[in-house]
């Protein structure tokens, strides 16, 4: 089954304790992205990756890191989490056409990771 | 830059009522337009899409028409059901670009 899988789904952690949210897709998609969803603010992009070893900042990258060493995986790293990073996080992926971008392709989302930082 | 603006919610309707959720966009090129739906406790999933002007996307009784002259992609359904209660997101991607742009979402509650 084609899917985007993220873990953990739910996590409560303490300020300053490094954590990683994993994301894996089995659709061989080039593009992967992380979003956070907060009430009244909709979806805001954190980081995205157009392919292996290619990452770029989204709208709200502060306090986050990512890496793309393999095509299927795109982990989100919070080096020193703070309470303002309490949010619902989504990983997403999409196929792209070389030299043509998305070309109308759909973006696929994981089920979300609820993160609480106390 | 590109952006999507959708009507604010929350929207509450009675079952079998007509639904319209407005969405307008700003884009520099030739975008594809999407509606995504998020059911409680789940991730976003594609509801429908249109990739060029005058195209109509449809799915599960929902429809939206890509109107380039008014830069709009309004979502409509003739008769909503309780099971349609969800958050709806309008989105666009530039066909040659590397970003998806999402609206802020509209929460819909349908009451029996």
Structure, explained:
- The complex is a heterodimer of chains A (118) and B (112).
- Chain A has no helices and eleven strands.
- Chain A has strands at 4-7, 10-13, 19-25, 31-38, 42-51, 54-57, 65-66, 76-78, 87-94, 108-109, 113-117.
- In chain A, strands 2, 4, 5, 6, 9, 10 and 11 form a seven-stranded mixed beta sheet that branches. Chain A has a four-stranded antiparallel beta sheet with strand order 1-3-8-7, with no helix packed on it.
- The mean pLDDT of chain A is 93.
- Chain B has 112 residues and is mostly beta strands.
- In chain B, 0% of the residues lie in helices and 53% in strands.
- Chain B has no helices and twelve strands.
- In chain B, strands 2, 5, 6, 10, 11 and 12 form a six-stranded mixed beta sheet that branches. Chain B has a four-stranded antiparallel beta sheet with strand order 3-9-8-7, with no helix packed on it. In chain B, strands 1-4 form a two-stranded antiparallel sheet.
- Chain B is globular, with a radius of gyration of 13 Å.
- The termini of chain B are far apart.
- The model of chain B has no long low-confidence stretch (mean pLDDT 93).
- Chains A and B meet through strand 4, strand 5, strand 9 and strand 10 of A and strand 5, strand 6 and strand 10 of B.
Question: Which helices and strands, and how do they pair?
Answer:
The complex is a heterodimer of chains A (118) and B (112).
Chain A (H helix, E strand, L loop, with lengths): L3 E4 L2 E4 L5 E7 L5 E8 L3 E10 L2 E4 L7 E2 L9 E3 L8 E8 L13 E2 L3 E5 L1
Parallel strand pairs in A: 2-11
Antiparallel strand pairs in A: 1-3, 3-8, 4-5, 4-9, 5-6, 7-8, 9-10, 9-11
Chain B lengths: L2 E4 L4 E4 L4 E3 L1 E4 L4 E8 L5 E7 L5 E4 L2 E4 L9 E3 L8 E9 L5 E3 L3 E6 L1
